[in-house]
Amino acid sequence: MARAIYLTHPQVVIDPNLAVPDWRLNEVGAQRVQALAQRLDFAGHLIVSSAERKALETAWPLAGAAGSAVVVRPKMHENGRSATGFLAGPEFEATADAFFAEPEKSVRGWERAVDAQARIVAEVSAVLEKSSGCDVVFCGHGAVGTLLYCALLGLEIDRKWDQVDGGSWFAFDTVAMKPEAHWQGMEDLV
């Protein structure tokens, strides 16, 4: 039985002048990923990432530790929210709350949560179908990761299932397709 891990990128440099998909990990986020890559043996794991820079910067050190390349899946991107561009703290949180609370509605032009959920489930399923039974680490994003978590458990979309902070993970076996536990910090990944 193979195991899949969905890992969200940790802390980023928030730059309102740069498109969000181009944001990079900040020093703390990069150090957390490096520590994870040094602490665990990723040999034999398939490392898969969204094409967003912060997810790639999470995946590259893990792939380096595994001695493999990163498989890039552009459709694993975070929920589409380019309609609003950068939103600062409280405004972003309020819009994200509405995104989860009204999953069948496009909030402020954002991708609907039900569409983002269908997309991330399809991407994960496509990778697992071709993974030849090896362990897989998906490096991605919090909102679509939460939508995946809800889908795997058959839960209604709700932000209460969201990660507490970036750099979180949950694991599931690739047969039962049920998360082993709720989100945990990357420092607790075993």
Low-confidence stretches: none
User: What is the beta-strand fraction?
Assistant: 5-15%
What's the number of helices?
5
CATH topology: Rossmann fold
Regarding CATH, which class?
Alpha Beta
CA gyration radius, whole angstroms: 16 Å
Main sheet properties = 6 strands, mixed
- Strand order in space, largest sheet: 3-2-4-1-5-6
User: What's the order of the H and E elements?
Assistant: EHEHEHHEHEE
Please give the alpha-carbon distance between the first and last residues: 16 Å
Number of strands: 6
Give the second-level CATH assignment, the architecture.
3-Layer(aba) Sandwich
Pfam family, one: His_Phos_1
InterPro entries: His_Pase_superF_clade-1, His_PPase_superfam
Protein name: Histidine phosphatase family protein
Organism: Parasedimentitalea denitrificans
